[in-house]
Specification:
It is a single chain. By secondary structure, the chain is mainly α. It has one domain. The chain has four helices and no strands. The chain is elongated. The protein starts with 13 loop residues before the first helix and ends with a helix.
């Protein structure tokens, strides 16, 4: 059994770090939503990939929080992050279907590549949620 995490460096707050990452994720979500149709396919793919990676990193921070046996409830639940990434993935699918019907176009390849990358990250995010839930019991 792990000993509870003792924060000897009082300037470090693990929960605040997680919440800051969540706030950054929300800002990125808003930025993507507001500028979706103004972005080039390459920029959109990059931002959506970053969005999914950030969600995964938040899940990893929660896992690390558990591994350190920090007392108290988790500062967030992963369900909201998963729903957020899933919604953007669905929107990207519709966007690809509606605008980029030619598989030979470089833009199409960029967007489809981002889609598959985001899908893999979403899968890992869901796996981490399951692992965290299993360790709560």
């Amino acid at each position: 059994m792990l000993e509870p995490f003792e924060n000897h460096d009082r300037t470090f707050d693990f929960d605040a770090l997680i919440l800051d990452a969540v706030d950054s994720q929300a800002s990125l979500s808003q930025y993507i939503d507001c500028r979706w149709h103004d972005l080039s396919p390459r920029d959109l793919a990059g931002l959506l990939s970053t969005h999914a990676m950030n969600a995964l990193r938040i899940a990893l921070l929660l896992r690390d929080r558990r591994a350190l046996a920090i007392p108290g409830p988790d500062p967030i639940q992963l369900d909201g992050l998963i729903a957020d990434v899933t919604a953007r993935l669905a929107r990207l699918s519709r966007y690809i279907d509606a605008r980029w019907r030619s598989p030979g176009l470089p833009e199409w390849r960029t967007l489809v590549s981002a889609h598959s990358l985001i899908l893999c990250r979403l899968s890992r995010l869901i796996t981490h949620r399951r692992t965290l839930r299993r360790h709560c019991r």
